[in-house]
Amino acid sequence: MSKTILLTGASGGIGYAMARVFAEKGYNLVLVARRKEPMEMLADEVNKKYGIETSIVIQDLAQEGAGKKLYEAIDHMGIHPDILINNAGFADYGKFVERGWEKVRDMIMVNILALTEITRMFAADMVRRGSGKILNVASTAAFQPGPLMAVYFASKAYVLSFSEAISNELKGTGVTVTALCPGPTQSGFVERAEMSSSKMFRVIKPVSSEKVARYAYHALMAGKVVAIPGLLNKMSAMSSRFFPRSIVRYFMRKISDPV
Ligand SMILES: NC(=O)c1ccc[n+]([C@@H]2O[C@H](COP(=O)([O-])OP(=O)(O)OC[C@H]3O[C@@H](n4cnc5c(N)ncnc54)[C@H](OP(=O)(O)O)[C@@H]3O)[C@@H](O)[C@H]2O)c1
């Protein structure tokens, strides 16, 4: 029987690319996001091409209790995902005190709260069944503070720390947890974060979402705990350990400033 993967943030970018990779490997998909149309297009394409089954759940993960609602919807469909990918997330660019509170709050809800609630619900079921794989999408942003994207960088530090800790707690249960830490990647991310004026995506050349998705697939299958695609990203993640934090903050501000 085909295995099923539950994937949040499947309507664009890295999530869309990951859905394609898992479909190609024969997994049935449960796609979650707010925008229905791109997920319907994806479902049409992969169902025909790979003979799999795709379900779509429209859910705003910034809403209070969204994780529980999603869990109940999936349970009602009689689906028990073998793999969970918490990919939905977004950033916001600018000085913290000058950014609108609503967007900052929604970012915390999606990047942290929904991810934690969804992991809590599905991981418990996986432990009961004695098998499962979870991939939480963090970022290279998890490894240092990010002036002008303070809450986003902090949210990804949370995702990395949380994922590493529970991967340890779940040892021996048959459930693995992987924190994926991509660097700049081509997707809807820059537009959504309103960061086209930032130097960041000019200093570091973004890679394709497909490349990140293929790397993520192999890292998840291998049960890697921390997965950083690309040598440059690995080096940048490591480098923050060797410099005083004041230098790291200074450097991060320099590459985040407007052009
Ligand atoms: N691109 C990069 O450079 C980069 C680097 C490191 C990490 N990441 C991480 O990679 C993940 C995917 O981002 P991306 O780069 O692929 O950006 P993207 O193209 O903007 O995709 C973001 C996805 O998250 C979903 N999402 C956003 N807010 C949501 C909400 N309130 N409820 C439900 N779904 C929501 C979006 O769907 P809807 O809008 O349809 O709801 C979309 O499918 C994020 O966690 C991001 O932080 C990205």
Mean pLDDT rating: 97
The spatial strand order of the largest sheet comes to 3-2-1-4-5-6-7
Going by helix content, strand content and strand pairing, the class is alpha/beta
Poorly predicted segments: none
The total beta strand count reads: 7
Task: Name every ligand kind in the structure.
Answer: NADP nicotinamide-adenine-dinucleotide phosphate
CATH homologous superfamily heading: NAD(P)-binding Rossmann-like Domain
Helix content: 40-55%
Oligomer: single chain
Q: With helices defined by DSSP (H or I, 4 residues minimum), what is the helix count?
A: 10
The CATH architecture classification is 3-Layer(aba) Sandwich
State the shape.
Answer: globular
Q: Could you explain the architecture of this structure?
A:
It is a single chain. By secondary structure, the chain is an alpha/beta fold. It has a single domain, classed as Rossmann fold (3-Layer(aba) Sandwich). The protein has helices at residues 13-24, 36-50, 66-76, 101-129, 150-169, 189-193, 200-203, 209-221, 231-239, 245-256; strands at 4-8, 28-33, 54-58, 83-86, 132-137, 175-180, 226-227. It has a seven-stranded parallel sheet with strand order 3-2-1-4-5-6-7, sandwiched between helices. The longest helix is centred in the middle third of the chain and has 29 residues, at 101-129. The chain starts with a strand and ends with a helix. The chain binds NADP nicotinamide-adenine-dinucleotide phosphate (NAP). Residues 9-15, 33-35, 60-62, 87-90, 110, 137, 139, 182, 184-185, 187-189, 192 line the site of NADP nicotinamide-adenine-dinucleotide phosphate.
